[in-house]
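Table S4 entry, SRPBCC family protein.
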Amino acid sequence: MDIDIARVLGPMDRSVRRFDKDGKAASAVTLTRLYDTDVEDLWDAVTSPERLPRWFLPVEGDLQVGGRYQLQGNAGGTITACAPPQRFEATWEFGGDVTWIAVRLTREGDQARLTLEHTALVQDHWTQFGPGAVGIGWDMGLMGLLLHLDSGAALDQAEVFAWMASDQGKAFVAESGEAWRAADVTGGEDPAEAKVRSDRTIAFFQGEPPPEVAHPGTGS
């Protein structure tokens, strides 16, 4: 498996914003990119239980507003809004935490744009890992979507996992993490703190131990 990392990551626009959600500090990461297909086909790819396993994960449940869904081995939640083929929203529940996703599709010429926003309350996980904690994972997911739309075929998940453990896969994680570090800084984070968090997140996704963090005034 050989992937053009620049083609996958380069056209993606990323942003991070901070705001109050129901009186609590929250953050949202947003990814957006164009795909060489129409809105109807892109909608089918991101919502159809027949197509989702071809590039992402098998899904089951009651896939309508108010219904519960479950991604195999990953998040589940409740579908809170759906307006085919333009948008859907859902809770994203994993490991006891509840976050929120919103997906919007728009037509731009003969292409279709996907915009994904993932919102979370600012808690310990965000403080330690920053936006890359979800951003790198979504970069991986949308890479799968791109490869699927290119070929129409289903990805070989075993091959994908093997690639992620390869040098090229680790380079993908590093470049994605650096892109999210830059978005974190643009979103208002202190550059030094953003680097600490992105280094920690990259190490996690690469299966490496977390880097040692130098503390000012101690030299260690």
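The longest helix spans residues 132-151.
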